[in-house]
Amino acid sequence: AIANFISGSDSQMSKEAFYSKLLRTPENQLPKTKHVVTINFVDFPCLDGESRSEPPENVVTDKYLICSSLGAGKCRAMACDPQHMDLKFLPWAGIAAHLSRNGQNPPALQGNAFCFLPLPAETGFSVHLNGYFELSANRRDIWYGDDMSGAGKIRSEWNRLLLSDVVSPLYTQVLLTTRFLLGPGKQYDSLWPVTVSSDIWKIVRSRVYSLAPNLPLVYSLLDTGKWCTLASAVFLDSPEYNNNEGHSDDVQVVTTKTLM
User: Fold this and answer.
1) Which pLDDT belongs to residue 252?
2) What is the pTM of this model?
3) What angle do CA 65, 31, 183 make, to 5 degrees?
4) CA-to-CA distance for 20 and 6, rounded, in angstroms?
């Protein structure tokens, strides 16, 4: 859907025509995709550089949720600004969450940033982030800094808006979707953005938590269990709740009837 929107029915669509289309499309009609992708690979180690001729024995099956979208807000406005068209900004991002390995909980994921190819930059999150980022000169990191000027400042501002207006809303959609794919528990809890590897990723963490309060993203044990909003939840750090099997040891969420 996203690729079709970008290419359009006319493969010769001009850059100006594309940005005009992007700008006039209502936000709720911008394309979004969600897929559960299955990846099969063979864990086939070789010792001391020796090749092996035996048939593979350890076939590994991974499942990922991959969500992508074109975004709006100030990010779209910047991309469509005639002053920036030569930079070919595109408010496009994707997030991948590891759901399972061989039908079991997957190993902990050290999230990386991608600009269609993997970057050495780690985010600190437990999901992978892909976006139309502006990269540093050596293409090893996301261009970011508060002390830049000229073209560097423009590129830094673009990355900030891409993270705030496209990546962060998409992150909340990943959390909303994985509620039902994973159910409540430690694996779901681990997907929330908590730890960051550098200041630029604080943009995502802050924005996700500012978008989350009115979304049913936390699980309550009240009334046999239900999903509730952060705004209607009380977080208890108490042994009475921390001992519930299958839920986070750090914090449990309960809702009181006076808040519902």
Assistant:
1) 42
2) 0.86
3) 30
4) 12
Give dist(CA 228, CA 86) in Å, integer.
Answer: 45
pLDDT at position 259 over 80: no
Identity of the residue numbered 35: H
Q: Give the CA diameter of the chain.
A: 67
Query: Does the pLDDT value for residue 53 go beyond 70?
Result: no
Alpha-helix residue ranges (DSSP H) falling in 141-201 = 150-162, 168-182, 186-190
Taking the C-alpha atoms of 23, 86, 74 and 190 in order, what is their torsion angle to the nearest 10 degrees?
110
- Strand 112-114 to strand 128-131: parallel, antiparallel, or no bridges (unpaired)? parallel
176 φ/ψ angles, rounded to the nearest 5 degrees: -60, -40
Complete DSSP assignment for 122-140: E-SSSSEEEE---B-TTSS
On whether the CB atoms of residues 119 and 98 are closer than 8 A, the answer is no
> Among candidates 173, 182, 205, which has minimal Cα distance to 192?
205
25 SS3 class: coil
